[in-house]
Design a protein that fits this description.
Blueprint: E1 41-47, H1 52-61, H2 63-67, E2 69-75, H3 79-91, E3 98-102, H4 106-111, H5 131-135, E4 147-159, H6 160-165, H7 174-187, H8 201-210, E5 216-219, E6 222-225, H9 230-244, H10 256-264, E7 269-273, H11 276-283, E8 291-295, E9 308-316, H12 323-335, H13 337-347, H14 375-383, H15 395-412, H16 416-434
Parallel strand pairs: 1-2, 1-3
Antiparallel strand pairs: 3-9, 4-7, 4-8, 4-9, 5-6
Length: about 450
């Protein structure tokens, strides 16, 4: 895996000095830190997940008490802010025992030797997860750098009442999706099927993932960046073409105008993930009970693949003097039936654990989708076919470049292919600036 040098992660909010280390060797637990003392163990867990303290109480009052391992939750901000804080603490050798980490942040943390390889302590956990979820925590190696916690399989959401009103059929392929968008415009010119939004790069990344894209891979000890590969170019051209011809909208998500469009039926569908009901509850409250969920359209008939938009894991840091104990807790948190049920209830987490997806917490649909009783059963089936991801050490740079380049392209109805190449060039240039070896 790639060799790193002394460098700065300069883009976004990350500006932390990185260490000289090999990614393949990062997180090695072959030292005295992997052995816990015979006395009581106290662990600290940095997480942004709401209600996590109530979930951890179950551990502290049950198996943790029996094993003399207590965990204290320290609430943190999410995203780049937390990554920066972890790296800063690790530089001083004062990182907590456990951290919440989004999947796309793992390569950055691992390449900085901030996360421990817990494969020896978590070997029995693999069977609890779908291959796509587990793969994200291994970075394509035999090492295990975290335990999957929640996932965001992507789906297609649509206004069932308006689809019926306008005689539209739920698309099963992207070609049908485009024809549905055009058909709606012909029948109701003031409405749009959906929008292409350039303010959430995770959506585009998930769509590219479904198409087979692998943005970061390795060649020997070099990183290879392929953000402008054929799969991603296909996705960019597809959405750019729909925006250019006016078949769909181009306004950003999560803004008041977007909320209003969903709430009033001016936009009648949304490509999103399993967490969408929560967003729709606040963005479009007047439409409760009018939506339905279906699998993501496919690029070819007969395919059955989805992308991932969001999700995080629980990782053990290399600074922890109690790695085995921390790994035991991380495994319990994300696989124990009582723990994952509590995560669903207290934190609104859609679990990565496959058995938990059909647990008691998911026997009833989200309140916003009360008209679709099989919501979570379908979600679980969709999640099983999540395409593998391929993250690198400067995802934040790629995402920032996407927001800028695709934002301009959507606004100007210009070529999305050019925006994609801008994203590729910016990501490669940043890796080189940091001191990574990059394969051409």
């Amino acid at each position: 895996m790639p060799v790193t040098k002394h460098r700065h992660l300069t883009a976004g909010t990350l500006a932390v000095v990185l260490g000289a280390t090999s990614l393949a060797a990062c997180g090695s637990s072959d030292d005295d830190k992997s052995a816990d003392s015979s006395g009581p163990v106290s662990l600290t867990y940095w997480t942004w997940v709401p209600g996590m303290d109530k979930v951890v109480d179950l551990w502290n009052e049950g198996p943790g008490k029996q094993q003399r391992i207590s965990v204290t939750v320290k609430k943190q901000a999410s995203g780049d802010t937390l990554v920066t804080k972890i790296l800063t603490a690790h530089k001083a050798k004062k990182a907590p025992d456990l951290v919440q980490a989004e999947y796309q942040a793992l390569p950055t943390l691992v390449s900085n030797d901030a996360l421990a390889d817990i494969a020896g302590d978590a070997k029995d956990a693999r069977s609890k997860f779908a291959a796509g979820a587990w793969q994200q925590t291994t970075l394509g190696t035999d090492a295990v750098y975290a335990i999957p916690q929640d996932i965001g399989p992507m789906m297609f959401y649509y206004r069932a009442d308006l689809f019926k009103k306008y005689g539209l059929t739920v698309p099963t392929t992207w070609e049908q999706f485009a024809e549905t968008a055009r058909a709606l415009k012909r029948k109701a010119p003031d409405k749009a099927l959906t929008t292409f939004s350039a303010n959430d790069s995770g959506l585009f990344a998930g769509l590219a993932q479904q198409a087979g894209a692998k943005w970061w891979t390795t060649a020997g000890d070099k990183w290879k960046v392929a953000i402008d590969d054929a799969a991603t170019e296909k996705v960019a051209d597809f959405w750019g073409g729909l925006v250019k011809e006016g078949a769909i909208d181009d306004q950003p998500m999560y803004q008041p105008a977007w909320n209003k469009a969903l709430n009033t039926g001016k936009q009648i569908a949304w490509v999103s993930a399993v967490w969408a009901p929560g967003t729709l509850t606040t963005a479009a409250p007047d439409t409760k009970g009018k939506w339905a969920m279906a699998p993501l359209p496919q690029w070819s008939d007969g395919e059955n693949t989805t992308g991932s938009w969001g999700g995080s894991s629980t990782a053990v840091t290399t600074d922890s003097p109690h790695r085995a104990a921390a790994a035991t807790f991380a495994t319990w948190l994300n696989t124990d039936p009582k723990a994952v049920a509590a995560l669903a209830k207290e934190s609104g987490v859609y679990p990565a654990s496959t058995s938990a997806q059909s647990g008691d917490a998911f026997t009833q649909p989200p309140a916003f989708f009360a008209n679709q009783p099989d919501f979570y059963a379908r979600a679980s089936e969709i999640a099983k076919n999540t395409a593998p991801s391929a993250w690198g050490p400067n995802v934040n740079v790629a995402y920032t470049s996407f927001n800028d380049a695709f934002g301009d392209a959507a606004k100007n109805h210009s070529d999305f292919g050019d925006a994609l190449r801008t994203m590729q060039d910016a990501t490669v240039a940043d890796l080189k600036k940091q001191g990574f070896e990059v394969a051409q």
